[in-house]
Design a protein that fits this description.
In chain A, about 70% of the residues lie in helices and about 0% in strands. By secondary structure, chain A is an all-alpha fold. Chain A has a single domain, classed as Rna Polymerase Sigma Factor, Chain: A (Orthogonal Bundle), CATH 1.10.1740.10. The longest helix of chain A has 29 residues. Chain B starts with a helix and ends with a helix. In chain B, helix 3 packs antiparallel against helix 5. The model of chain B has no long low-confidence stretch (mean pLDDT about 75). The chains are: A mainly alpha (about 200), B mainly alpha (about 130).
Chain lengths: ~200, ~130
């Protein structure tokens, strides 16, 4: 038993030095949850931050993050190693987000059909005016697609090609969406005078 | 080489891009057991998947036991109705055997055992996959 514990500590210490690609191979080949755990530890912050910027509230975003990692575990063998692992992970996160939106839309349609007035779920209604940061205001002028792509580009640091892979859009379209997003922000805000989001 | 490319990309970014990057930048979120929760969830799911097939086979076997035994009894009764010579394999077909006669409950038992064996092999293969 003590030997198992010691082995786990040695294994964890070794895993810290292993690259993402090797951890993925290890997790797929031998269903190694420790290797996958290390991948989660490395990337959870970025995935949660990404989803917090897209979803209505942090609790929902964290639920979506958990779902994202569970989907990632199920589909891990589909990661080809082309492009960064975080790019692939954000693709899974974005798909999970869109699926959950579609589900909640269908749910509210059913509620409307039976005459139930659903609560407004938009972030602008759930937060106090004081709580709304500059970034929230900035994101509010963007459409959902623009928001996701701008966040992937400026918050997660993905290249245009990686964003294209994640969203399934051609690189040219990604560039024009970013250009349009920047234009909207420029039109609506003086971005030189801002607080950090 | 890679660092040179990164530097070039950095230079290509204008001031506005850098400003947007700083606006979109967020504080790192502490793990606080988040990854451990997911790993535990995944481990539990693996165990459930591993146990699902044997448990289903056991329950299915228990449920099917009574009807299967009834089937065996009915089959042996039906085989008793079939003339004995139809069940005897002629010596010309199997010269090394004098005459093979299947006992009444033997044939259905063999069929049933074969079915159980095949189901078991398929189940084990599925479990391994």
């Amino acid at each position: 038993m003590a030997c198992d514990g010691a082995w786990q500590i040695i294994q964890s210490a070794t895993l810290l030095e292993v690259e993402d690609q090797s951890l993925v191979t290890l997790a797929v080949a031998s269903q190694d949850t420790t290797a996958f755990g290390e991948l989660i530890r490395r990337h959870q912050s970025q995935v949660r931050n990404f989803l917090r910027k897209l979803a209505a509230d942090p609790v929902e975003a964290d639920d979506l993050s958990q779902e994202t990692f569970l989907h990632a575990w199920d589909k891990l063998q589909t990661y080809s190693g082309r492009g960064s692992f975080i790019g692939w992970l954000l693709k899974v996160a974005y798909t999970t987000f869109l699926q959950s939106k579609r589900k909640s839309k269908r749910y509210s349609e059913v509620l409307n059909e039976v005459g139930y007035v659903a609560e407004q779920q938009s972030r602008s209604y759930t937060q106090d005016a004081d709580e709304v940061s500059d970034l929230d205001k900035l994101l509010a002028v963007l459409t959902e697609d623009e928001r996701a792509i701008m966040v992937m580009s400026y918050a997660c640091g993905l290249s245009h090609r990686e964003i294209g892979d994640a969203t399934g859009l051609p690189v040219g379209t990604v560039k024009s969406i970013i250009f349009r997003g920047k234009d909207k922000i420029r039109t609506n805000f003086d971005i030189k005078d801002h607080k950090h989001g | 080489m890679t660092s040179k490319i990164i530097n070039m990309v950095e230079k290509l970014k204008d001031a506005e891009d850098r400003l947007l990057e700083s606006m979109f930048a967020a504080e790192p979120i502490a793990d606080d057991g988040f990854s451990q929760r997911i790993v535990t969830h995944i481990r539990r799911r693996i165990w459930v998947r591993r146990l699902a097939l044997p448990v289903a086979m056991l329950v299915g076997g228990l449920v099917a036991f009574k009807p299967a035994m009834q089937l065996v009894t009915v089959s042996s009764t039906l085989l008793g109705v079939v003339p004995r010579e139809f069940l005897e394999i002629p010596a010309s077909v199997l010269p090394q055997v004098e005459s093979v006669t299947f006992g009444m409950p033997l044939m259905p038992m063999i069929v049933l055992s074969a079915m159980v064996l095949v189901a078991g092999i398929l189940g084990t293969r599925l479990l391994n996959e």
